[in-house]
Amino acid sequence: MGFKNSYIILFFLFTAQVWSQNSGAEFGIITDNDLYTSSKYDMYYTNGLELFYKYVSKNQNSKIHKKTTEFRLGQYIYTPRFINTPEKEIMDRPYAGYLFGEFGKTFFYKNESVLKMDLRLGYLGQNAFGQETQKSFHDLVGYKEVFGWEYQIQNALVIQTHYLFSKKLFSSVKSDFVDFHFRSEASLGTIFTGVTTGFVSRIGFKKLAPVYNSNLYGGAVGSAESEFYFYIAPSINYQLYDATIQGSLFNDNSPVTFKLVPLRFNGEAGFKYRKNKLNLSYVFMYRGRELHHPTNSGYFYGSIGVSYLLK
């Protein structure tokens, strides 16, 4: 538990130092849970928590409206569908914890294209404290005891990269309340390797902010505009590797693993709101079936984000 606490202390010490040097900045929290969509389902990607801090970086490129630098600390927890029995024969997904620190850069272009790149370092397995976090949460809110963590994915080092590119479509069509974007993502590393491509559309309840000043991709930092819109983002994912399901690339000592279903349909839809210095969001996430097991299926969860802008 000391390792996890040192992660948190270093994160806040570093971001506090950077905070003091930058006027255009944002800090916040993102919490994911399947309970945010239904009290009945508690399975697969069952909980996520991220703390982040970002600020506007120096920019000397005439084609770029704004560059941001971001630091993030996160933990994800994965469980099978049935968590009230220790019998591994009925598990339709491995238990897994994933703890990481992230450093990222985002480039917001004047034509409303976006390029994001980030690097994550951390742990998958017992060193990620997934079991301890879930047990503490269930004890706190009075949920049932969880059995089966002794079969979790074993320790593996996280060295993970992620890239996102988004391009605005139909730029010649002028609309203050609707826009469309092509979005493509790629992950490469010791935990996830795969590609995702799809489309994003914003539908504004008020005039849409340009993407480089919008909270769609984290561009609200350094901007004083207000926002309120609904967005939808269907996509196709081809997953080549997932250590939370298959175990580590470098050993086969995890007691419960499965073969991937590589091609999936994913979707997300939600609301994003910004007023003055406050950023709020609620997103419904759907993920297609990820592995081969008779009871495994697609699933959904909710994501809530709250952040504060520093001018």
Write a concise synopsis of the structure shown:
The protein is built from 3 helices and 12 strands, in the order H-E-E-E-E-E-H-E-E-E-E-H-E-E-E. It has helices at 2-19, 130-141, 243-246; strands at 25-33, 44-57, 64-79, 96-109, 114-124, 156-169, 178-189, 192-204, 227-242, 263-275, 278-287, 299-310.
Q: Can you describe what's shown?
A:
The protein is mainly beta. It has one domain (2-310): Lipocalin, CATH 2.40.128.140. Helices cover 11% and strands 50% of the residues. It contains three helices and twelve strands. A twelve-stranded antiparallel barrel has the order 1-2-3-4-5-6-7-8-9-10-11-12. A hairpin with a 6-residue loop joins β2 (44-57) and β3. Residues 16-22 have low confidence and may be disordered.
Describe the SSE topology.
Blueprint: H1 2-19, E1 25-33, E2 44-57, E3 64-79, E4 96-109, E5 114-124, H2 130-141, E6 156-169, E7 178-189, E8 192-204, E9 227-242, H3 243-246, E10 263-275, E11 278-287, E12 299-310
Corresponding CATH superfamily: Outer membrane protein
* Overall tally of domains: 1
The helix count comes to 3
Tell how many strands the DSSP assignment holds: 12
**CATH architectural category:** Beta Barrel
Percent range of helical residues: 10-25%
Mean of all residue-level pLDDT scores:
91
Largest sheet: 12 strands, antiparallel, barrel
- State the distance separating the first and last CA atoms: 36 Å
